[in-house]
Amino acid sequence: MPAANMDSHEVTTRLHVDELILDYLLWFCTSSLLKERRLRLDDQVGKREWTDAAKSADMGMRLVNSFTQTFKRLHPNAILPDSIALRQRICRFTTVFLRRLDATSPTFTRPSQSGTRTRAWLSRKRASNVIEDLTSSSPSSNVPIASEFSQTPFAPSNLRRNTEEMHRQMGFSSLPAAQQMYWGNISLREGLKEFMVLSSWTCAFNDEVSTLWVETATNYMVQSVLEAYRCEGAKGIDALNECFSWGPTTSQDGLDDDEVIVNEMFGGDDGSVGVLFEEMKTEALLEVLPPDDTPLETHLDRLAEKHTWAVFEETLVSGYLTAVVSAQPSPILLQVFVFSSFFSRWRVILTIGKQQLESGKLNGFEDRDISTLLANAGALVR
């Protein structure tokens, strides 16, 4: 916590400075991950250039992880300004989607809450599963029963094969072993909530939900199903429920704050957003369900060939995520870098070039001091 002898002005200044640092680090982490992905998928880029970008991305995640914890410890009651809170959401989703890690979490991971949320959503729909909810508005003869998913889980050898193919499409298959360490275990269906919440935030700022976004969201659900059953070895219908238990509900009982905002997004434009979403979600769910006399695994394999991960990721990152990132103002520290150390003897405001922190240097400090400071921030000191 701030020193007891600091007056209220000093405490406020410290909070403001630390908010600026957090804002910059969140931006740096997101930008570095997007750059690393672009270079990873570019066959024309040299190994050295990609390696440097990967190190920056790793440093960005570690700095965000460490400084987020420090910020919460120093300012336990602080509420982030909306602009920084949104950038934090963007960073969290980016790390979850591209690395399956949550850089804003102390452990880089998060406890799964999908099951609880899904059961509550189905309860509000008065359905035991998403297929049953679908039959309430679709002819039952055209909808397979939930027992199709009793054919899961699939063989471990097939799961490994599918996972390797997914990583190949991501560009991870040829990475050095050391880089594999920064691949977490957060599933796509866990990241789906982050996508929905982030979308509701950007909708609140921009007051717009496009048809392209709805298509991206329903494609995300399909990809989450494919990963759950073809790569993770999901058993039964629970994973399908988790992936498709999104959409407008008339009752808000039991919704947390994030879910309330998401529900409000679906209620936008006098409810037409929710209507469009339900229509496209129904189409996606019907596509996921196998036709008569076709084994579930065979059907999902064919679906994965039709809806490749590479195309989906490119659409989401280069379309949706890039647009969201570009719409945010640049961090103030890109023009004037205000640096506040974790220790009062290092408190100083410096005007420096935006590359200095990334390169491990700050004007006015000796290299060994900066190395110590970055190490305390969780950085990879080179």
Structural domain count: 2
Spatial gap, N to C terminus: 30 Å
Morphology: globular
Work out the strand percent. under 5%
Low-confidence spans:
337-358, 362-366, 376-382
Query: Would you count the extended β strands for me?
Result: 0
Order of helices and strands: HHHHHHHHHHHHHHHH
Gyration radius (Cα, Å) is 23 Å
- Helical coverage, percent range: 55-70%
Description:
With 382 residues, the chain is mainly α. Helix content is 61%, strand content 0%. The chain contains 16 helices and no strands. It has helices spanning 8-40, 47-74, 82-99, 114-125, 130-135, 156-170, 177-180, 188-206, 211-230, 238-244, 257-266, 272-288, 296-306, 309-326, 356-359, 367-376. The longest helix has 33 residues, at 8-40. The radius of gyration is 23 Å and the shape is globular. The two termini are 30 Å apart.
